[in-house]
Every structure is written in C-alpha cells, then in structure tokens.
Amino acid sequence: xxxxxxxxxxxxxxxxxxxxxxxxxxxxxxxxxxxxxxxxxxxxxxxxxxxxxxxxxxxxxxxxxxx
Length: 67
Hints:
By secondary structure, this protein is mainly α. The protein contains 2 helices and no strands.
C-alpha cells in the first residue's frame, strides 16, 4: 500500500508539472504572436487532458490515503 501511494504521488507531481509546461508553452506562443491557431488548439487540448489525468490520479491517491 505504501509503495502504491508513493508511485501515485510521483505520477500526480509529473502530471502537474506537465500541465504547467504545456500551459507555459501556450502562453509563450501567444505572447510571441506566432498566430498559429492550430498549435494553440492542440496545446489547449493537451492541457485539458493533462489536467484531467492529474485530477483523476489525485482522486485515486486521496481514496487510498483515506483507508
């Protein structure tokens, strides 16, 4: 059980960092004025997916810690 919570904690951290990375890439792309709307949309979809993954893993982690 302790090993599983450690792995989930690490995975949550990685998912959160990936979300921030994609968010920053999108912000920098908009600030640079590249105007590539297709890239901006792909980054938005990735960010939403990574947020969903992070929240899902976090919910599982909380469930395991409650037991």
